[in-house]
Design a protein that fits this description.
The structure holds two protein chains of two kinds. Chain A is mostly beta strands. Chain A has no helices and eleven strands. In chain A, the strands form two sheets. In chain A, strands 2, 4, 5, 9, 10 and 11 form a six-stranded mixed sheet that branches. Chain A has a five-stranded antiparallel sheet with strand order 1-3-8-7-6, with no helix packed on it. The mean pLDDT of chain A is 94. Chain B is mostly beta strands. In chain B, a hairpin with a 7-residue loop joins strand 9 and strand 10. Classes of the chains: A mainly beta, B mainly beta.
Chain lengths: 111, 113
């Protein structure tokens, strides 16, 4: 049962451009929305996360925008760099008991 | 390094054999999770421990799968009578009580021939 839908599946962006990945969720009980970054051969690592009481969170070049009424959230990567090339997963959980992941977006940043 | 460690990193086995994976979480974390990841997909939740208690188990976890966390420290995931459909990356993660962030290991890749 997929409770977090992520798009696009893959994304190619020019160096310096903006990468945008979108996610939608169904369960209104979710109260924590993290984004994970995964490089080949590695486990996912937390990139940035947001709780539903705020509409935006920014950390360096990474920003999460959150729309509670639409049950959607997105990751924006500003000034994308080749080193950002990785797979990105949005996720959601309730109270840290079970995190549900989206299917992932493979990002390639062209130099 | 005090991150989450998993062993073995790679396992190739024949259909019908049993396999066991081990996970050593970050020492002060009392929550431990097992996820399965197949190519091109996000991690799928399998099971979750708080200390030594297994609090939730996914419907994905058939009777052939069993996980333990004796004494609330390391954990093992055993798959009995492996099938080709079990081929995947098995990820372990840990977290401290009350935190949302999961700290993942590098995974154990299983190939069933």
């Amino acid at each position: 049962q997929q409770q977090v839908k992520q798009s696009p599946q893959s994304l190619i962006v020019q160096k310096g451009g903006i990468s945008i990945i979108n996610c939608a969720y169904e369960n209104t009980a979710f109260d924590y929305f993290p984004w994970y970054q995964q490089f080949p051969g590695k486990g996912p690592a937390l990139l940035i996360a947001i709780r539903p009481d705020v509409s935006e969170k920014k950390e360096g070049r990474f920003t999460i925008s959150f729309n509670k009424s639409a049950k959607q959230f997105s990751l924006h990567i500003m000034d994308s760099q080749p080193g950002d090339s990785a797979t990105y997963f949005c996720a959601a959980d309730t109270g840290g008991f079970k995190t549900i992941f989206g299917a992932g977006t493979r990002l390639f940043v062209k130099a | 390094d005090t991150g989450v460690s998993q062993d073995p990193r790679h396992k190739i086995t024949k259909r019908g054999q049993n396999v066991t994976f081990r996970c050593d979480p970050i020492s002060e974390h009392n929550r431990l999770y097992w996820y399965r990841q197949t190519l091109g997909q996000g991690p799928e939740f399998l099971t979750y421990f708080q200390n030594e208690a297994q609090l939730e188990k996914s419907r994905l976890l058939s009777d052939r799968f069993s996980a333990e966390r004796p004494k609330g420290s390391f954990s093992t995931l055993e798959i009995q009578r492996t099938e080709q459909g079990d081929s995947a990356m098995y990820l372990c993660a840990s977290s401290p009580q009350g935190a949302g962030e999961l700290f993942f290991g590098e995974g154990s890749r299983l190939t069933v021939l």
